[in-house]
Structure formats: structure tokens, C-alpha cells
Design brief:
single chain, 288 residues, alpha+beta, Helicase, Ruva Protein, domain 3, 2 domains, four-stranded antiparallel sheet, 6 helices, 10 strands, 23% helix, 21% strand, DNA-binding
Length: 288
DNA sequence: CTTGGGTCCTGTGCGC
DNA sequence: TGCGCACAGGACCCAA
């Protein structure tokens, strides 16, 4: 479930449970995800206190009082399940529903000193975890070249124009490049391009200042709206679950091939084609 | 350097 | 009902 809004939603679910808590038990059920767990991972996590759960791009960062940061990338199917002791009158959090895959893909489980249990599931195992000295995060290969956070001031039209300049690659592909802007994935790139009226096929170098300004505004808007909605939940996960994300109901183009464009006054039909092996959805009528 | 394609892994949904 | 195939939110690696 992981583009920026989904990762941010997960962060907001984990922070109240892990922030300020001490990890008292770690059960690592396999040696690797996409990559091997770091050497001594469970032992190094056990006994640590989590200062805060943060996010950078699509990475979750749990900073520890040991001087290390526990880093998680959810890949395509990584999920966290939080279970807490029953608290009278408390409504369950967004992530307290049963994991759809069952226990089969529960690769890591930990308990806190407050009695909460946090389990990581990942059917496809495209996710990965690391334990990195906090002082070295910025220079670590996972983070060194990542671009600005789209919801922070460093992401502006001048930055985009600089990244686009002279590039013949399609603007959609360039926006997916985490070095250009952090946290965008296939869904929100399609959505932002549609809002801005920019064709995903347009060579990045041919995006002018006006379109770059619109893209900055619309990337921000779509991400902010998605965060408020708790992210998007794909079909396999959309079970009886008032707790999953809701933004999939607000998609203008993603997953809407053959359906009418929702832009007022546009009579176009949403089309789909492949770019770099991934589906792009757009309206050929109002995106140029 | 840029760009396109293949790859990791498993599950689901669709057409036949 | 079963089977094969296409496709899935990411990102790395390599070849041209």
C-alpha cells in the first residue's frame, strides 16, 4: 500500500504505539525480506526505546535511543498490524484489523513495554528493513540521493524545471524518480498529471513554467487529500474494513480505463497504456 | 549520462 | 470448478 500518503498513514498509526515505548521482545521469523535483515537485527532492536516514528519519502524511520534508526520500506505489499490491550472507550486504529494474508506472511513481530504488539506482514517480500546509525542516515545509499519532500518548501517549480531540463524522458517517468521528488508512485503521479492537464507522455524537457507551477500545486493537493483520506486501499485489501484508506474512491483516472473523464466540461474517456512496464492512466482529451 | 527492460516474490482476478 | 496468464502501490541492476 505504499506511496507517500499510505506510508504517512502507517506512520501516524505507529507513532502513538511505538513513540516513547520500549521494545521488549522481537520475533524475527525469517532471515530476509527483499534483503537480509541486518546482522543481529532482533537483538539490536530488543531493549531499545523508540523516540519517534518519522517518515522520509516512502521510508518509515523509528529513531531509537541506541543511536540507531530502524528503517522500513513497505515495498508493494508490506503492512503493519497494531494490536493493543483493550482500552475502554477507545476506538480501534486504522491498522488494528486482522491482516488479510493471515499469519502466513507475518515476518516480524514485536512487543512494547506497554503491552502493544506490532506485526509486519509482506506477502511479496519487496519490503526491506535496516538498522542504520541515526547520524549516518543522510549519507546512507537509501537516502543520499532522494529529492525534496513534496509537502515541504524545497519542492517548487524551480526545482522541477531544473530536474526536467533537457530530459526527453516522459514527465510521468521523471516524476516517479525518487531523486526528483520523494514519495510519488504510480497512482499519485497519474492523479497529479491529470489535475494539471499534463500528458504523461510529454517529454519532461517540454514542461514549461506554468505547467510546473500547476504540477507543484497539484502534487501537493492530491497527496494532502489522500493523507486525510487515510491513503488508498487496493481491491484485494478493501474488505469489510471501515479502517482501510478511502482515497481510492477519489481517483480521477487511476483504475478508470474506459470511464468518462471527470473534469468539468471534458468529454474525454480515461485511457490506459504502459510506460516502463507500468500502467499509466490519463485523459487524452484534457491532458496535453 | 540517460533510458529501457528485466528482476525480485506472491496473490488475485479474469477469460476460457 | 480448474487453469493459465496478465497484472499489482517499488526500486535496483545492467546493457545499450
Amino acid at each position: 500500500m505504499p506511496e507517500l500518503p499510505e506510508v504517512e498513514t502507517v506512520r501516524r498509526g505507529l507513532q502513538p504505539v511505538l513513540g516513547g515505548a520500549r521494545v521488549v521482545r522481537v520475533e524475527q521469523r525469517r532471515p530476509d525480506l527483499r534483503f537480509p535483515f541486518p546482522y543481529g537485527f532482533a537483538q539490536r532492536l530488543t531493549g531499545a526505546r523508540v523516540d519517534a516514528v518519522l517518515r522520509r519519502a516512502k521510508y518509515l524511520l523509528a529513531s531509537l535511543d541506541t543511536g540507531e534508526t530502524w528503517v522500513t520500506h513497505l515495498g508493494m505489499t508490506g503492512r503493519f498490524l497494531v494490536e493493543r490491550p483493550e482500552v475502554q472507550g477507545e476506538s480501534p486504529g486504522r491498522f488494528t484489523h486482522a491482516a488479510p494474508e493471515g499469519a502466513k506472511h507475518a515476518h516480524l513481530a514485536l512487543e512494547t513495554d506497554a503491552g502493544a504488539r506490532v506485526t509486519f506482514f509482506d506477502a511479496r517480500r519487496f519490503g526491506y528493513m535496516g538498522l542504520i546509525p541515526t547520524a549516518e542516515l543522510g549519507s546512507h545509499p537509501w537516502f543520499a540521493e532522494i529529492g525534496p519532500e513534496p509537502l515541504e518548501p524545497g519542492f517548487d517549480a524551480a526545482h522541477l524545471l531544473g530536474a526536467f531540463k533537457g530530459r526527453s524522458q516522459a514527465v510521468k517517468t521523471v516524476l516517479l524518480d525518487q531523486r526528483v521528488v520523494a514519495g510519488l508512485g504510480n497512482i499519485y503521479v497519474c492523479e497529479a498529471l491529470h489535475r494539471s492537464g499534463v500528458s504523461p507522455r510529454r517529454p519532461a524537457g517540454k514542461v514549461g513554467r506554468a505547467a510546473a507551477l500547476r504540477l507543484v500545486k497539484d502534487v501537493r493537493a492530491v497527496l494532502e487529500e489522500a493523507i486525510i483520506a487515510g491513503g488508498s486501499t487496493l481491491r484485494d485489501y478493501a474488505q469489510a474494513d471501515g479502517l482501510s484508506g478511502l482515497f481510492q474512491h477519489s481517483w480521477a483516472v487511476y483504475g478508470r480505463e474506459g470511464e468518462p473523464c471527470i473534469r468539468p466540461g471534458c468529454a474525454g474517456t480515461v485511457a490506459r497504456f504502459a510506460q516502463g512496464g507500468r500502467s499509466t492512466f490519463f485523459c487524452p482529451r484534457c491532458q496535453r
